[in-house]
Write a structure and sequence with these properties.
Helix content is 42%, strand content 14%. The chain has 299 residues and is an alpha/beta fold. The model is unreliable at 87-100 (pLDDT under 50).
Length: 299
């Protein structure tokens, strides 16, 4: 891929961290490189003016320079390693209205040499509460480790609790986890897990939809939950509070057609109220081991 085309993708990533309907139409009309150059020069339709604050060639080049210093790479739909079947800036719809916060990102910013597409092929997302219990950590580690040993890639984030336990278990069994970040690659989240992310990048891959220097935000966290489900073939929840993000992530997974599993926990444990509720409502299938999950996965 030419330098001009890589820079064009970086500009578009700056213009819209997530899908934008006006931007999609503009790209369809003029093409990728011309759209990037037009965005950088400000010669765009009025509806795109709000996207121009940080979308410049200079900023995009700084992003790419920082990415190289981090040992990262820019992954675009031009690459064979692109993990999404959908086109870039794809928009899903609900009742005829575009959902601009859902859909494949324009690009992925990646640390790690492990192929992203391979890491997402048939992957299982293991997610759950940051305020986990020893029971939850143990179960998450057992399930993630067993799945990895059986050849199933594992997707998660580097968050506290269940997610970190799952990632560490995959690393312990020489697996190659795919970790999704809600901020730029130079802004590890949480920052206490910088070493964990470095370990993942050595054998697996760390990906984000957000350019370097992007800070964590609520929108970023929501989109990362969607992206975690989109990069997987099934989602497993191990412990979650009743008011946590579990229901939203489970909803994303169902919209994407991903099977949802939940590990039951003690009825006296607040950390298991969310997963128990998913099972009670029929929003997730009860599972207690990796073997059970594998047996219930679609062929």
């Amino acid at each position: 891929m030419s330098v001009a085309r890589i820079l064009a993708w970086a500009v578009l990533a700056r213009a819209a961290h997530r899908p934008n309907l006006s931007l999609q139409h503009f790209i369809d009309q003029v093409g990728l490189v011309d759209a990037a150059e037009a965005i950088a020069s400000g010669d765009v339709p009025p509806g795109l003016a709000a996207l121009l604050a940080s979308a410049t060639l200079e900023t995009a080049q700084r992003d790419l320079d920082l990415l190289i210093r981090l040992g990262g790479r820019l992954l675009t739909p031009d690459d064979h390693d692109w993990p999404f079947a959908a086109s870039p800036l794809h928009l899903s719809s609900q009742r005829g209205r575009p959902k601009v916060d859902h859909g494949a990102p324009p690009v992925l910013w990646v640390r790690g040499t492990h192929p992203v597409r391979a890491a997402a092929q048939g992957a299982i997302a293991v997610l759950g509460s940051a305020a986990s219990t020893p029971y939850g950590d143990q179960v998450a580690a057992e399930i993630a480790g067993d799945m990895a040993r059986r050849g199933y890639p594992i997707v998660s984030t580097a968050g506290f609790g269940i997610r970190a336990a799952a990632v560490r278990a995959v690393l312990d069994c020489a697996g190659a986890p795919l970790v999704v970040q809600p901020a730029g690659l130079d802004r590890p989240h949480p920052f206490q897990h910088q070493m964990l992310l470095d370990d993942v990048a050595e054998v697996g891959c760390v990906v984000t939809a957000f350019p370097p220097q992007s800070l964590v935000s609520q929108k970023g966290l929501r989109y990362t939950r969607w992206l975690s489900a989109a990069l997987s073939s099934a989602v497993v929840f191990v412990e979650a509070g009743f008011r946590g993000c579990t229901l939203g992530t489970a909803s994303h997974a169902r919209e994407l057609g991903r099977p949802v599993f939940a590990i039951p926990g003690p009825v006296t444990s607040p950390a298991s109220r969310g997963t128990n509720n998913l099972i009670r409502c029929g929003a997730a299938t009860l599972a207690t081991s990796a073997a059970e999950i594998i047996a219930m996965l679609p062929a």
